[in-house]
Amino acid sequence: MELPSIRKIRALELLEKTAKKLELPEDVVQRCREIIDDLEGRKILSYIGVEAAVGAAIIAASKPHMYIGLRTVSRETGASKKQIYRALKKIFVRGVTKIERKTGDVAGPVLAEIPRIALATGVGRDAETVARKIVEKALAERPSLIKTPVVTAAASIYLASILLNRRIPAKDMSRIVGCGEASIRHAARKMAGYLDIKVYL
Q1: How far apart are CA 174 and CA 135, in angstroms?
Q2: Predicted TM-score of the model (pTM)
């Protein structure tokens, strides 16, 4: 059995300390541990630094459940915002963690965003269900369709609203979720194409 490196031990200690201060749920803390394990396994924990790795892991793990700002994490871990941002680039590929890419769970972060966006737009539970099916089928066909979880989720809700004759203007969707109108349209067009859905976007 391989012993954990000193850096990994320090990272886990800092994680426990910071998690208590920020009152993070246990499932988020466990996700952070998995991310730190992944960084250590890819031999980049030493490159990005313990403090930045912990800060980035907290942001990445908490993203689907709660919002924790970069400034807060920087203050609690002692890493600069720039260092944490660089570490996040090592964790994420197109808004999905490398662990999710490896295990094939690319739909998970997108599905986590759908209820929040559905509630904010008021499209209804049936549109939320349709959006979930669109995401599951589209990403099963082509995982690379994902841009970021928010854009992909917004595009699926947008597509569902059109299919149910309750079209939400892309402009309104863009304002609600805080991403570009063109990005939402493009992602919706790609998903519709792979699922052979004929709609006017």
Answers
A1: 18
A2: 0.53
